[in-house]
Design goal:
By secondary structure, the chain is mainly α. The protein folds into two domains: 52 residues, Arc Repressor Mutant, subunit A (Orthogonal Bundle), CATH 1.10.10.60; 137 residues, Orthogonal Bundle (Tetracycline Repressor, domain 2). The chain is 70% helix and 0% strand. It is built from nine helices and no strands. Helix 1 packs across helix 2.
């Protein structure tokens, strides 16, 4: 990944980011070596170091994964004006497709580092707060539109949505629950706290 004629720096960095993802998926965070990234990228370890050491590369990959995950969910919700449709889309977009869902796996591969690394913990907190903000805004809107009758403050309910998602995501990634089962569980919680049945379109 050292400079190559005809390829811009950002394009090379994007290529390397994909290589880091592939290596993480194959080796896991704890077993990851610089050599694994180099092999995934088809270059030498020295060429990889041109863009930073192992910790810096993994941190940047995690940051980009957070941004992608958050943007995809926000865009899915923003596609609708009705809070009921927003909530349905928010739930559907946030749940992993299965054990091989690369983006969700990336987020969970990195999570244990948050227990010992302040920079990682800050990123994880930002991810959590961003997801809570999406849910909270939808719940507030739904209340204003007259669709939802909330049983507790919107932020409290939103934080519970995110906590439930996190637990269910691990079950999906471990192959113990399906995406359909998790969506059903989250919609059941939505029904309990909003009074609206998301399975039925308005």
């Amino acid at each position: 990944m050292a400079p190559r004629k005809g390829i811009g720096k950002e394009a090379r960095r994007a290529e390397l980011g994909k290589a880091v993802e592939r290596a993480l998926m194959a080796r896991g965070l704890e077993g990851l070596r610089l050599r694994d990234i180099a092999e995934a990228a088809g270059v030498t370890p020295a060429a990889v170091l041109y863009y930073g050491d192992l910790d810096a590369l993994v941190h940047d990959t995690y940051r980009q994964a957070i941004e992608r995950y958050s943007q995809e969910r926000e865009q899915a919700a923003n596609h609708f004006d009705d809070a009921r449709d927003k909530l349905r889309a928010c739930i559907d977009k946030g749940v992993a497709t299965g054990p091989d869902d690369t983006l969700t796996r990336l987020l969970f591969e990195y999570w244990p580092r948050c227990l010992r690394d302040a920079r990682a913990a800050a990123l994880d907190s930002a991810l959590t707060e961003r997801q809570i903000a999406v849910y909270s805004a939808i719940l507030v809107l739904g209340q204003a539109q007259g669709h939802f009758v909330l049983q507790d403050p919107p932020r409290l309910l939103a934080a519970s949505f995110v906590a439930m998602e996190d637990g269910h995501q691990m079950e999906i990634l471990a192959g113990r629950r399906t995406r359909t089962e998790v969506i059903t569980a989250l919609r059941a919680y939505a029904r309990a706290v909003t009074g609206h049945e998301l399975a039925d379109h308005p």
